[in-house]
Design goal:
Layout lengths: L1 E7 L2 E8 L9 E6 L7 E8 L4 E2 L8 E5 L3 H6 L9 E5 L4 E2 L4 E4 L6 E3 L1 E7 L15 E8 L2 E2 H7 L3 H5 L4 E8 L8 E6 L2 E7 L7 H9 L9 E3 L7 E3 L4 E6 L3 E9 L2
Parallel strand pairs: 6-17, 8-14, 9-20
Antiparallel strand pairs: 1-2, 1-5, 1-14, 2-3, 3-4, 6-7, 10-13, 10-18, 11-12, 11-17, 12-14, 15-16, 15-19, 19-20
Length: 260
């Protein structure tokens, strides 16, 4: 099931995406009653997908991201994979949706794309045992962990480099019925392939990451875990269109603009 968050005529809601580009009339949204965390009902009111504006599929209280979870990516930046996951936070204000603009930060001159599989949490959880991880996951979406690489290297910590406004595109929707173990991940810039990898190349599994994170903090419904990026990260410039495509989910596209 694909669950999208959308806006139409000033109203915001959630809906189940039905059909695709090959479907007669195109895909539609069946608007749901309430929110997707737990049981919900479809209203039966359907709106063509091209008549709404897709929003970030969730409004997380926090985004917990994992660095160096693909060995080839760690190597391309001259880093080693450590004994424990490298975790950092991106604030809720960094989140934007499909089609929204990535604003090039004024403090950087080296902006990079990082295509990632994002895990969307469906229930409040803490100290989750490995065998219960699937129970706390609502589904999966595409993410771009946009990074001011020069600031990351210069400042030795990642709060500004990875947490600036618009640095966390998410979307286009949440796929709830998906096995994340071996999915293709691709990033293109202006139609040119930059990254191509598979989730099976992760150093640590999603189960490992959720266990590790929830040892330290409570995750709330709608929180997001970014699982790391494959090799091939590279520069973004003002005017570029960057797209993250994940097998079984879809494509998240954003354009880079000058801030201000």
């Amino acid at each position: 099931m694909r669950i999208a968050r959308f806006s139409i005529d000033g109203n915001v809601g959630y809906g189940v995406v039905e059909g695709d580009a090959a479907t007669e009339g195109g895909p539609v949204l069946d608007i749901i009653k309430g929110i997707p965390y737990g049981d919900f009902e479809r209203s039966g009111t359907k709106v063509p997908l091209d008549k709404v504006r897709l929003l970030p599929p969730v409004l997380p209280s926090k985004v917990v991201a994992i660095g160096r979870n693909y060995a080839e990516h760690a190597a391309e930046l001259g880093n080693e994979v450590g004994d424990i996951p490298v975790a950092f936070l991106k604030p809720s204000t960094s989140v934007i949706g499909p089609g929204a603009a990535i604003e090039y930060p004024s403090f950087s001159s080296e902006l990079h794309h990082e295509a990632e599989l994002a895990v969307v949490i469906g229930r409040m959880c803490r100290e989750v045992p490995r065998e219960r991880v699937k129970d706390v996951i609502l589904g999966y979406t595409c993410a771009n962990d946009v990074t001011a690489r020069d600031a990351q290297q210069r400042e030795k910590q990642w709060a500004r480099a990875k947490g600036f406004d618009t640095s966390c595109p998410l979307g286009p929707w949440i796929e709830t019925e998906l096995d994340p173990a071996d999915l293709g991940i691709m990033c293109t810039v202006n139609g040119e392939q930059r990254q191509l990898g598979r989730t099976s190349d992760m150093v640590r599994s999603i189960e490992d990451l959720i266990v590790h994170i929830t040892e330290a903090m409570t995750l709330l419904p709608g929180d997001v875990v970014l699982t790391g990026t494959p090799a091939g990260v590279g520069p973004l410039n003002v005017g570029d269109e960057v797209a993250v495509t994940i097998e079984g989910i879809g494509t998240l596209t954003n354009k880079v603009i000058k801030r201000g």
